[in-house]
Amino acid sequence: MTVRRSAVTGWQPGAAGLKEETQAAARGLPSAIIAVSPFPAPGQDHADRSHADGSADPSTTAPQTPEPVTMNRPATELTPRSAAPGRPDPASAADVHRPFDAGFFRDPYPVYARLRTLGPVLKVVLPDGSHAWLVTREEHVRAAFTDPRLSVNKAHSRNGYQGFSLPPALDANLLNIDPDDHLRLRRLVSRGFTPRHVERLRDRVGTAAAHYADRLAERLAEHGTADLLAEFANPLPLVVIGHLLDVPEADGRAFSRWVAAMHAPARPGDTAEAIEHIHRYLLELIRARRAAPGDDLLSSLIAARDADDRLSEDELVSLAFLLLMAGTENVQHLISGGVLTLLRHPEHLAALRSRPELMPDAVEELLRHAHPNQMAIRRFPTTSVEIAGVRIPAGDTVLLGLASAHRDPDRYPEPELFDIHRADKSHLALGHGLHYCLGASLARMEIGVALGTLLDRFPGLRLALPDGELEWRQSFRSHALRRLPVAVSAPAG
Question: Which of 491, 475, 469 has its CA nearest to residue 483?
């Protein structure tokens, strides 16, 4: 393994490109670290906060403290208004709803159930006060993924929510680009995510999973309880994407913290500061890799930029940003959310232990039932469009409600039921059409290996506190655990 010095050492974040009112003082960076082991001990820090396009949504003005509001209609009006069969009432569609309150953050699915009864397309207010159109039903969400009139490019936005406010060097990523540029950039990185290449990584992932399972076991032996998210689910994907890009694991932990601050800022200014940290780090990482290239995906992207001029400098930095974020954030929370879901359904946990060959089916059902991403990347109509009978003006923001679509009873029989034997395994968790997740094969493999390792190693794994006391990220974008305290029961008898 190539020894890489941490690129986060020796610089401090500045305020370039950030609005004055959102700047925050730097709070320090990791000390100088040389990564000499592929599996160093995990840090004590962990993500506190994950898109169906296979990555976290890197495109939003982060919400401040959510308003303590509920659905803005009186309770007596939380029932569907009369309308022609199969067609929403236009007046209902014009109402503005405020669904993203504290109850939503704890459990969004009852909220989605109410929203679906109100209509397939609803105007909503987001926690930051901006407006968007939320598509709630699977049929229309699936169709919108491939509608060429719905652009992901923020240049088409006129009103409402746009996503994270990113500098140009982070904004030119695959999630924000329409064809043909999307296809050009996708081809540059696709070699690292082919099924054949992913399968060659399986042993490495298994070794890493065993390593972090050992660390989790040590914490459990020392303290009786441990945070599975911090000790296992967070560091494992960092090792995998770190191998592909040759990024030291300590740098990956810092990057994961900054992404967490983007998604769930603890105070005003945290999002802007985190973005500045990420920007500066990636610039330094690319500068160092240019000086000492290796046999890794980032070096090949730099060569494509410098030797072949196949992408711009902003596109290069943005691709590195997306690969690091998409390769860690969603997988971390799918592992932790997957463990929680299985602990809540012991019959399926027992089935997987007795029949490990069911794991691929379990992963697909987890992607449908427990994916952290609530929405796909926001979209903007390039012309006035009609979705499910609701007219949406050009430039407005459209959110495709993935989590709502995956619980749509018109699409899935008993959609609230977690069932690893479900016959219909189709879902939208990894995107659809042009924006189908580039790392889908890798994500599926990592989740399966991670869960299989935990099931084998910890037969008595259980929650270390009541389910109702679990802490969830305060975000409308992702339903993700802040931590997952676990313990191990002694063998019966």
Answer: 469
Question: Which pLDDT value is given to residue 94?
Answer: 58
* Maximal C-alpha separation, the chain: 68
Residue for token pair 């690292």: 192
> 3-class SS at 260?
helix
- Measured CA to CA, the distance from residue 356 to residue 378 in angstroms comes to 37
How long a stretch of residues is the chain?
493
Half-sphere exposure of 114 (CA within 13 A, CB side): 19
> In this structure, what are the phi and psi dihedrals at residue 247, rounded to the nearest 5 degrees?
-110, 130
The residue among 23, 20, 14 whose CA lies nearest residue 271 is 23
Domain presence at residue 392: yes
∠222-227-230 over CA atoms, to 5°? 115
Q: How many other C-beta atoms lie within 10 A of the C-beta of residue 160? A: 21
Any bridge partners for residue 398, and if so which? 133, 379
> What are the structure tokens assigned to 415, written together?
């959609």
Do the domain assignments include residue 46?
no
Q: Whole-angstrom Cα distance, residue 268 to residue 355?
A: 48
- Token output for 411: 């699409």
- What gap in Å lies between CA 333 and CA 247, rounded to an integer? 21
The domain of 399 spans: 51-488
Number of domains in the chain: 1
Predicted confidence band of residue 492 (pLDDT cuts 50, 70, 90): low
**What would the two tokens of residue 429 be?**
């968790």
Bond into 180 cis (ω within 30) = yes
In-domain check, residue 425:
yes
Residue 261 lies in a domain: yes
CATH at residue 390: 1.10.630.10
Q: Tens digit of pLDDT for each residue in 378-419?
A: 999 999 999 999 999 999 999 999 999 999 999 999 999 999
> For residues 113 and 120, what is the distance between their CA atoms, to the nearest angstrom?
11
What are phi and psi for residue 127, nearest 5 degrees?
-60, -25
CA distance readout (Å), 127 to 75, 96, 329, 474, 477: 21, 13, 22, 10, 10
Who wins on pLDDT, 269 or 64?
A: 269
